[in-house]
Amino acid sequence: MLKVASFNINGIKARLPRLLEWLEETRPSVACLQEIKTQDEGFPADEFEKLGYKAVWHGQKGFNGVAILADGEQPVEVRRGLEGEPEDEHSRYIEAQVFGIRVACIYLPNGNPQPGPKFDYKLRWMDRLRSRMRQIAAEEVPAIVTGDYNVIPNDCDVWAPKAMDSDALMQPGSRDAYTRLMYEGWTDALATHNPRGGVWTYWDYQAGAWQRDHGFRIDHALLSPELADRLVACGVDKVHRGREKASDHAPVWVALRT
């Protein structure tokens, strides 16, 4: 069985003990990280090596940043960053080949406040992601594109739709761009196994959101047709959100037949 997980760690240096704890307890074959918030030279690769994980990463000082870790195998980097806006210096995308599958780790722009330039950037970024996913699909390889999409796909993916109806995560433009990926053949693993929704991956630090279970689902794992057929199980490691100095996200994972 191959287990691929995604975790927006919200600062790899601040959360390193929690991250190492999660890796040791759950032992994913592949771990995709977002919001590592460190320059490349500050990435703690040695700490992961001690646990047997090898990594590729795309860092940025203080913001963003993505990484792919693999248990006992060196991921072979395929791409970092998306084409389409050469002036875009945000570290939000890294793609690698590992364990015979293509793994893309993404941190999609939040887009708030909306309307405005940040929301416009979000939609352009989603168009660029769609273009890259089309290229991957054309290769007909088993592939997963996972990470923090910053999109709440449906009303059943949030504790109270009215509470988020003005947020960039729930705007029609964001949802439409996400839905178009499904129309092009990608499978939302968590939605497939939880068609009624009610599964959260994020709880804000404010207003007692965690204690009141006021969360929503923005961390997704999209599978190509070649990989969707191998999906056995998926879930959210919710318990890790409740620990001391935790990220505001919980890890999501998929289990795949090898």
TrEMBL record:
UniProt entry tagged with the keyword Metal-binding: yes
Marked site (Interaction with DNA substrate) residue numbers: H249
Record-annotated active site: Y107, D148 (proton donor/acceptor), H249 (proton acceptor)
Source superkingdom: Bacteria
Gene3D superfamilies named among the record's database cross-references: Endonuclease/exonuclease/phosphatase
Record's keyword terms, sorted: Hydrolase, Magnesium, Manganese, Metal-binding
EC number: 3.1.11.2
One Pfam family of this chain: Exo_endo_phos
Residue ranges of domain Endonuclease/exonuclease/phosphatase in the record: 5-249
Site (Transition state stabilizer): N150
An example Gene Ontology molecular-function term: double-stranded DNA 3'-5' DNA exonuclease activity
Residue numbers binding Mg(2+): N8, E35, D148, N150, D248, H249
Cofactor, free-text remark: Probably binds two magnesium or manganese ions per subunit.
Protein family per UniProt: Belongs to the DNA repair enzymes AP/ExoA family.
Name the record gives this protein: Exodeoxyribonuclease-3
Source species: Novosphingobium chloroacetimidivorans
Phylogenetic placement of the source organism: Bacteria, Pseudomonadati, Pseudomonadota, Alphaproteobacteria, Sphingomonadales
